[in-house]
């Protein structure tokens, strides 16, 4: 049976070659048709997930959250590390605990640091498709409200700390630590302000569009 099929295919191919050599028209169905490969659903799912499938605004927001995390960490660390300790400072030197304004700035900076860690962790999980901490709707509302609150607290704490820095002696290590801390605190304020604008855009897009 297989031999007869092969002989029939050979005769058909021979007749087609003779017809083409003589210039005769060849039927359209005489040539074997190659089946088109069907795309794998697994390849589609892989291509549509991960970092490339997320909107660019999510990636920008994640980068800004990382900057806020970095700046707030440096701001808080500078006050803790560079300010004089009780056992090391002289009797005339100032300490961090003596200035409520600097303690207020340190507390707000730590709040911004903890919030940035949470947002950074949540954003990485969402982009990597490892899980969702909260729904998109709750996340948009929460991010917008907390961003606005932190923007106000950061600018107020930086303003208060600047007034306290003026009263510290110029030669005191606390003055240098406070200047560095306030500088990075203000940088954190600028970054979270941009995050607040992005959060407002996402919230308006959800409500209006």
UniProtKB/TrEMBL annotation:
The keyword Magnesium does not apply. It is found in: Cell membrane. Residues 56-168 form the Casparian strip membrane protein domain. It comes from the Eukaryota. One of its GO terms (cellular component) is plasma membrane. Keywords: Cell membrane, Membrane, Transmembrane, Transmembrane helix. The chain crosses the membrane at residues 62-82, 102-121, 141-165, 177-201. Its main location: membrane. It is a multi-pass membrane protein. Belongs to the Casparian strip membrane proteins (CASP) family. Homodimer and heterodimers. PANTHER family: CASP-LIKE PROTEIN 4A4. This is CASP-like protein. It comes from Trema orientale (Charcoal tree).
